[in-house]
Amino acid sequence: MRVLSIDPAIRNTGYAVLEGDPRKPVVLAFDVIQIPSKIPQSAALSAIRTHLVNVIQKFQPDEVAVEGIIYVQSHQTAISMGAARGAALIAAADHGLRVYEYAPTKVKMAVVGKGTADKKQVAFMVRALLGLAETPPSDAADALAIAMAHLQASDPLKAKLLDRRLV
Question: pTM for the whole thing?
Answer without folding.
Answer: 0.91
